[in-house]
Amino acid sequence: MYVKGIAAFAAALGVGLLSGAAIAQEVKQEKQSVLGNANVSPVTQEQLNAADKSTRDFLLTNGNYAQTRFYPGKQISRDNVKNLHVAWIFQTDVKESLETSPIVVDGVMFVTTSFSHVYALDAKTGQQLWHYAHKMGPITVYCCGPNNRGVQVLGDRVYLATLDSKLMALNAKTGEVVWTTNIADPELGYSETMAPTVVKDKVLIGTNGGEYGIRGFVRAYDAKTGKQLWNFHTIPENSVGVWATKDATGRDMHRNIQAEKDMLAKIGDPYAKLGGGVWQNPSVDLATNRIYFVVGNPSPDLDGSNRPGDNLYTNSLVSLDLDTGKYVCHFQYIAHDVWDLDAVSPTVLVNVKDKSGKTIPGVIHAGKTGHIYVHDRKDCSLIRFSEAMVPQENMWVLPTKEGARMLPGANGGVEWSPIATDPGQELAYAINLHQPMTYHVESSAYPNGKLWLGGAFKVIPGEKQAGNITAVNYNNGKIKWQVNTPEPMIGGILATAGGLVFTGEGNGKFAAYNSSNGKELWSFRAGAGVNAPPSSYMVGGKQYIVVGAGGNTQLDYKRGNNIIAFTLD
Amino acid sequence: MFSRWMICGVALLLMAAQARAETIEEKVQVCAGCHGESGKPVDKTIPTIWGQQAGYLYIQLRDFKRGDRKSEIMQPIAAQFERDDMLAIAEYFSQKPWPDLGQPRAPKDVAEKAVSASRSVGCPACHLDRFQGDGTVPRLAGMGRDYLAKTIADFRTRARGNNPGMSDLMLATSPDDLAALVEYLAGL
Questions:
Q1: Does the CB of B100 have a partner CB in chain A at under 8 Å?
Q2: Is A57 an annotated catalytic residue?
Q3: ipTM beyond cut 0.95
Q4: Could B55 and A452 be called an inter-chain contact, meaning their C-beta atoms sit closer than 8 Å?
Q5: N or C: which end of chain B has fewer CB within 10 A?
């Protein structure tokens, strides 16, 4: 606040050009933690198991362990959503990219900001109850903004993963640190932006770093002590695979298999620095005790010359046993990816129709390719993929030094943004990007934890970019409706039993749509990019919709620092 | 120019004493000769380190010591430091105020060209809003124009070899766009 005050004073005096130092502090304010007293009741495992039925709380990043992002309350409906108005706005101390999914526990809300801050707020009034300002280590290495996507609560602890690759438990009542565990060495390119998933006293966490030559993982830590329980390498020691020449949709990827085999004979399996980050939460099948997640791109992104083979399990759906972390099954969408069109949006568990029309437990994922993929949960096999939600062109042309044009651009399709589903309508809702790009390749040796793209993906200046909100029937793969937006979309979406979907845009628009036909029913201008997934909850008998409006680093959308809650009068 | 380099060179003679330096002030004494007593580098091709991101400064010292980044001047200096020294030096300079080099803002058309080029390859994704940097990614806003131009040129030839990802991005950007970026960043 002090720095903001100085800036305002300078502006009032007509000082035209603020010094760079003042600007810097406005963007990233150094704040001390403020301990407090949040009257929050402990969260039980039973509550978490039944999160999909709770209208009071929003307990997990994507609503529930199946990650449906379907909120079962319907006080806010198609009929009355036009009367939605701001209940409160909370301004955080950090004006940078906001990707947080607000978590709500019995009237207390937990939100995070860039640089791994956590706030506990009164969900009815927006009043701050405590603020944890993470003291960041000097070494952070990350590709796409200093983001944090949220926390989860179990018992009386709030679990947080930080940009400098630490896992922490905070006291939910006060914000005090209970324990801290180092996850991995940030100097080697590891960082954390995802929210942990906590289940059965295990804290599940992946890692970023696919742009830095890491070896990715998903791990479980003991929720009580922070001790590591198991580790699953997303890159197995045999990463070669089956030399697949076609992607999940049957398109040829133009691999030079012989050249790859020659390279394999020369350098051996490249698993140790092959990337394979995990950006988003796993879904948890409580009935079978399995988790499902997707693994990101191989390192280096665009240069496949020094990483022969399919590069397992990059660009794949993977399932593990929750108790042991042992491999159950996988399905690879793009073997030996050289376009960074990887798998990042979180998986969703829903019942789906198999090829014979029989209803079975399924798992779905929205890809950067612009397809929604539908799998059999039993063995990860692909049942179907949807119509493309964005223009596709020239797939899979190989990157060149001069740059080869291909659509989608490297951000997708669907980026990390979680999708929502409405099982009653058999619909999945995804937000998409359309960014025409050229793909460029360059070759360089492993750079010791530095950015290792192996080239560049370059937005073509002057070409129209756009976005869309798309509803896909996951039982037949057809697009039910689509709403075009003027800019590429990144953030997330929420469906509700009120027959609505809520999502935001980089230009600050936050809107509600009829979930059956896409008709816009209400909108609000937030003043900064709404690029975070919305949540919903009830307190004092009223339903609220809440979303972060802080813009986005990756797409350079206008930054802000607002958490905005809406309700009916 | 010549006299400044002389001063810079004389300062380097302090390197012998450097090995025996104990306090942080003693350890950083050698730096002022080139990087400036008040944070303004004595030569335009020398980077600003006052107010720079600590993680970035540490990584550069580490890379000079490893030989991943080449410099006849910096490599022997960094060779004397252990990791803790480097972290302390990095922290020391990061806490100093960023100096105003008095470089003019880029004209509107140049700025627009620079912003378009920077968005095209995603510069703000790492260097952040207004190019302030964070962690191991440097602040570029207000950096010396000549240093920026030289560094970009060195990335393109890979003479600056300790960040091939940056080389890739600079090679994918036209010299014309890069010239606009230099002017824009220097004037921020």
A1: yes
A2: no
A3: no
A4: no
A5: N
Note whether B6 contacts A: Cβ–Cβ < 8 A: no
Q: Do A20 and B172 touch (CB under 8 A)?
A: no
B119 contacts in A (CB within 8 Å)? Answer: 459, 556
Q: Distance between CA A327 and CA A184 in Å, rounded?
A: 22
What's the pLDDT band for A32 if we cut at 50, 70, 90?
confident
Give the residue on A whose Cα is nearest the Cα of B51. A21
Structure tokens at A395: 């797939």
| Structure letter (DSSP) for residue A252 | B
pLDDT-derived band of residue B16, with 50, 70 and 90 as boundaries? low
What is the per-residue burial (b if ≥16 Cβ within 10 Å, else e) of B44-64?
eebbbbbbbbbbbbbbbbbbb
Q: Which of residues 126-155 of A touch B (CB under 8 A)?
A: 136, 138-146
pLDDT at A543 over 60: yes
DSSP A491: S
Tell me B31's DSSP state.
G
pLDDT at B2 over 60: no
Rounded mean pLDDT of A87-109?
A: 97
What angle, rounded to 10 degrees, do the helices at B83-94 and B54-66 form? 140
Residue B130: list chain A partners with CB under 8 A. Answer: 23-24, 27
Please, what is the angle between helix A20-27 and helix A2-12, to 10°? 140
Which of B90, B136, B171 has the CB atom closest to A140's CB atom? B136
Give CA separation, A568 vs A77, A214, A541, in Å.
Answer: 10, 47, 11
> Which of A349, A365, A344, A369 lies closest to A194 in space, CA to CA?
A344
Q: pLDDT (tens digit, 9 = 90+) per residue, A205-241?
A: 999 999 999 999 999 999 999 999 999 999 999 999 9
Picking from A138, A142, A450, the nearest residue to B54 by CB comes out as A138
For residue A316, give both structure tokens: 């794949």
Whether A119 contacts A128, CB under 8 Å: yes
Using an 8 Å CB-CB cutoff, list chain B residues near A19: 98, 100
Q: In the block, which residue shows the tokens 């809702």?
A: A429
Given a cut of 60, is residue B150 above it in pLDDT? yes
- Residues A382-432 have pLDDT tens digits of 999 999 999 999 999 999 999 999 999 999 999 999 999 999 999 999 999
What does the alpha-carbon distance between residue A32 and residue B98 come to, in Å, rounded to a whole number? Answer: 22
Amino acid A30: pLDDT: 60
Chain A nearest C-alpha distance from B116 (Å)? 7
Nearest CA in chain B to A24: B132
A451 in contact with chain B, both atoms CB, cutoff 8 A: yes
Catalytic residue from among A303, A340, A342, A422: A340
Cβ–Cβ gap B128/A146 under 8 Å: yes
Q: What is the number of CB-based contacts under 8 A between chain A and chain B? A: 131
List residues bridging with A565 in a β-sheet: A88, A546
Side by side, which strands form the sheet with A359-366?
A: A348-353, A359-366, A372-376, A382-385
Chain mean pLDDT for chain A: 94
pLDDT in tens, B105-128: 999 999 999 999 999 999 999 999
3-state secondary structure of B15: helix
Torsion angle defined by CA atoms of residues A263, A267, A269 and A271, in that order, rounded to the nearest 10 degrees: -110
Nearest CB to B165; choose among A146, A451, A559: A451
Do A345 and A417 form a contact (C-beta atoms < 8 A)? yes
pLDDT tier for residue A17 given thresholds of 50, 70 and 90: very low
* pLDDT tens column, A457-486: 999 989 999 999 999 999 999 999 999 999
Region for residue A283 given its phi and psi (left: phi exceeds 0; alpha: psi -120 to 50; beta: otherwise): beta
Q: Which helix (H) or strand (E) holds A514?
A: strand A509-514
Which residues are CB-contacts of B99 (< 8 A; sequence separation ≥ 6)?
B36, B38, B39, B40, B48, B50, B51
Residue appearing with tokens 């909120």: A71
